[in-house]
Amino acid sequence: MSSLVGYYRVSTRKQQQSGLGLEGQQAAVKDYARGQDARLLAEYTEVETGKISDRPELTKAIAHAKRARAVLVVAKLDRLARNVAFTSALLESGVEFIACDNPHANRLTIHILAAVAEDEARRISERTKAALAAAKRRGVKLGASRPECRNLTDEARRRGAEAGAAVVKQQADEAYTDLVEFVKSLRPAFSYRQIADILNMRGERTRRGKAWTDVAVMRVSRRLGILQ
To answer: Rounded mean pLDDT of the chain?
Structure first.
């Protein structure tokens, strides 16, 4: 039996509370799971408004799907896939993906959508460069030519190293973002060893696909700031 992780999106909190749109998405994913004789491991619902690019629930869903070697499932591809943040997150994660309304849409489809978004970004970049060049011809000082931007080499190098370390930490943190609240609810009533046993019984795995140990739980807890 294959495993699935469901991801839903509603535009406003009012829509989430009323069930408008959400119930239809949930029904589509559950029908798909039954039709594929698959197990729905978890469901994540994103409440999104406007052009928000930060999608914490999508991050959790991807992390869960990757660790569980599961497929990420959404009810409808159209609105989700046109969002650049969603497209980028899927491509970078490497997680397998299915849309109930278009089960043939796969990573190739997402690649095409990403290529369209990338082309638009390139066009915007070209227009920006042209505008900057025109400003420079008019005598406007830009970038490093500005006095306040000189002699920052050492500082820039330090900030670059810090930024690189932050990216590595962020990637490690995001792998377990869906487990934070669950582990918090178990500490300090349960020991690290007991929490590891509970995670293993739930079928959870570390981001490297291994069984949980007390040491792994302790390290992840400290990294994510979960109280000891």
So the answer is: 77
